[in-house]
Amino acid sequence: MDQGIDRRGADRRGIGRRGFLKLGFWGSAALASGAALTPLLTGCSRSDTPAAGFAHLRDNDVSLLRPLVKPVLGGGLAAVPGATADDALHAFDRLLEGGYAGTRDQLFQLMDLLQLGAARWWLTGTWAAFADQSDTELAATLAQWQSKEGFAQLAFKGLTQPLGMAWYVTPEAALSTGYPGPPRTGNV
Amino acid sequence: MPDLSMPDLSKLEIRNIRDPWENADQRWQVIDGAQQTRDRTLEADVVIIGTGAGGGVSAEILSQRGLKVILVEAGRLRSSRDFNLDEGDAYRHLYQEGALRATKDGAITILQGRTVGGTTVVNWTSSFRTPEQTLDFWQRQYGVQGTGRSALNPWFERMEKRLGVHPWQMPPNANNDIIKRGCEALGWDWSVIPRNVSGCWNIGYCGMGCPTNAKQSMLVTTLPAAMEAGATLIHSAQAHRLIHDGGKVSAVEVRPLDQHKQPTGATLTLKAATVIAAGGGIQTPALLMRSEAPDPNGRVGKRTFLHVTSFAFGHYGRDIAPFYGAPQSLHSDQFTFAEGVAGPAGYKLEMMPLHPGLTAALLGSVGEEARQRITELPRTAASIALLRDGFHDDSVGGTVELRDNGEPVLDYPLSDYLLDGARRSLHSQVEMQFAAGAERVRPGHIRAPYYPSWKAARQGMKDLAYQPLEVALGSAHVMGGCAMGEDEQHCVVDSHGRHRQLENLYVFDGSVFPTSLGVNPQLTIYGLSARNASALADRLKPVANNA
User: Is B375 close to A160, i.e. CB distance below 8 A?
Assistant: First the structure.
């Protein structure tokens, strides 16, 4: 019952692996599509300073991600009594602590890209800033983004996967899955 | 009322475990890189870079021969007194890139250890001898000498004895029992996995650092033995480059790292007559590349293999508790060599443990769908298929590259050959899980739903595109990149791990494999390293005596 490898997806999105490699990672993607628009659309310069209370995420990242947390985690945030979107962002920040600087830079580039309306339209299908969308609108935006292929899919995975992972490694969120928790060691 | 059928180990107390590293600073020579702020030069007979399977075994053998050994490890020293079974802490402290490592295009997630003891501290303890088909292939295709199964068997026996490797005696957990149920129903091969444990509590936290020291990782076996024999351990210190003249290495330049993995600014210079690179796949090739080591045929970092791994998730009408119990105890070789050693990609079937964080990442999706999937965790089982890569012309593996800042990154293009293997391996896993009694099964593919029957799954899976980023893929086995063998065009080191151009440099780790293995790699690394380090000790000892 072998069906062979389906290559239609690659053709449809018009960006096969070869094209992707030529494009490079987020950085080159920003150059190709968004960077020329940067001064026109935002006029803001890229900052490398972490936001107050964070080791890695910058102010712009925190404002970008904060409205996304609840729709990305679904009921996962509400399942932990008293938890706020910023708790999840701090968990995200701690997850990034383990990563290579080069890997974090790629994530920052993606988040810089998502500050641009044109890039949001290209990647997620909507121009509106995440902060200007209601939770219902954001859920629809995420569904649309998730259904895309190629580069947009990579961006979707690059942002939402670590956010989900970061949240569910926190002991409180872990317990909300039905996991009873680890044995007690007395170690910290 | 709690559901009494659900195992709950959260009340279990683990206390008073003997930690071989207790008071280590007072008994042994341990240097913490985080405290090194001034340049220093140290000397030894042998410098070993990396403390995992290859470095640990080599350190024990060479130290016990009376050679002065310095071990260098990028990770911080952590032992059972530090292991708190917190998933996030484990990734942050014990894994390469905090478990965020992935191939260059993001298509394959890579779990690899980074701590004193290397991946042996976080692996799931499966200990297989190298398949004969693989060893024969190396001999035929790469002219590897002296690695026939009968030549290696004494080394496997020695390491099995040293590390307590035995087929698992206790019943499998419900997750691993899927292999038995599914394979028996289908008439497929299955058997019990040999594990390197001694007095295992069967709790299921092998991947977070064993809190009871039952796992016979390098951290509790060869490394303490080497320290006892006079070795020096420098942890939190990254080997940045080898200093050499094109024919010989004179020293290793090491950058001590602070608590945040940032260089302290100091440089440690380690001088030795012999240097062993044992950083494992990705790290060892990256070191050679940063060092601009001679590489006349451009082979360093090429043919890096992953046992590219696909996943399938089954839902059962009862608790599976995939987070508890020995994580891997049964496996199936039904498809490992079914199409011959060099035919369409073969794959080994195993199970993997599921803890909430990694599971959330693997299951993917967002919103209510993601929440629904993760809250079904207690009744979810996860099978995996390890694809044998490197045995076919269309499976050339990946290439290690360096970022501008010297960090390595693996470019691993997924060929049609491997994607076809992923597709077939998903079919097998889904079929096995339905045969084992799953109510619903979902192949690890972003477009796939949970299918309600094998019939529906078989039909539905025909419409999936088997493409990078669409198929969920991971790896916990990085191999190759410094191939061994007698073929000078293709091999970075000879059949005994000696570098072809730098005469006093040896590579004793999984990066010397000319292909992947078809089994979890730790025992192959132990056996080969024991053989190679013993031969090296035989050569060096007279030199050391005269010095």
Answer: no
Q: Which two tokens stand for residue B39?
A: 């340049």
Q: What is the mean pLDDT of residues B9-13?
A: 96
Paired tokens of B254: 């090491």
Q: Strand pairing partners for B69?
A: B46
Type of residue numbered A14 = G
Decide: helix, strand or coil at residue B347: strand
**Nearest residue in B to A155, CA atom:** B106
* Concatenated DSSP letters of B259-290: TTS-B-S--EEEEEEEEEE---TTHHHHHHHH
Q: Which residues does chain B have within 8 Å of residue A184's beta carbon, measured at their own beta carbons? A: 10-14
Structural domain spans, chain A = 59-176
* CA nearest to B478, candidates B52, B115, B48: B52
Place of tokens 């109510």: B439
Give the pLDDT confidence of B37-77 residue by residue, as tens digits. Answer: 999 999 999 999 999 999 999 999 999 999 999 999 999 99
B417, two tokens: 């050959």
Task: Tell me the β-bridge partners of B483.
Answer: none
| Residue B261 vs residues A38, B77, B93, B114, B170: alpha-carbon distances, Å | 33, 13, 10, 11, 40
Lowest mean pLDDT among A11-20, A136-145, B115-124: A11-20
Query: Exposure pattern of B247-286 as b/e (b: 16+ CB <10 Å)?
Result: eebebbbbbbbbeebeebebbbebbbbbbbbbbbbbbbbb
Among residues A86, A168, A182, the alpha carbon closest in space to that of B361 is found at A168
Helical segments of chain A, H only: 8-13, 17-23, 26-29, 38-41, 59-73, 85-97, 101-114, 117-124, 135-147, 151-168, 171-175
| A153 vs B371, B372, B469: nearest CB | B469
Any idea which residue has 């420098």 for tokens? Answer: B234
Residues B233-242: tens digit of each pLDDT: 999 999 999 9
Query: Which residues of chain B lie closer than 8 angstroms to A167, CB-CB?
Result: 360
B336 Cα to chain A: minimum distance (Å): 18
Averaged pLDDT, B124-142: 97
**The dihedral sign for the CA sequence B226, B231, B232, B234:** negative
B342: left (phi over 0), alpha (psi -120 to 50) or beta: alpha
**A184: helix, coil or strand?**
strand
β-pairing verdict for B249-256 and B237-244: antiparallel
Cβ B106–A176 below 8 Å, yes or no? Answer: no
Average per-residue pLDDT for chain B: 96
Distance CA A164, CA A22 (A): 30
**Residue-level length of chain A:** 188
User: Does residue B502 surpass a pLDDT of 90?
Assistant: yes
In this prediction the ipTM stands at 0.95
Q: CA nearest B466: which of B391, B526, B537, B416?
A: B416
Cα distance between residue B518 and residue B509, in whole Å: 17
Please name the helix (run of DSSP H) or strand (run of DSSP E) that holds residue B454, with its range, or none.
Answer: helix B454-460
Please give the interface size between A and B, counted as residue pairs whose CB atoms are below 8 Å apart: 201
Distances (CA, A) of A186 to B61, B211, B274: 35, 11, 42
Fold observed for domain B24-546: FAD/NAD(P)-binding domain (3.50.50)
Reported as a pLDDT band with limits 50, 70 and 90, residue A150 is confident
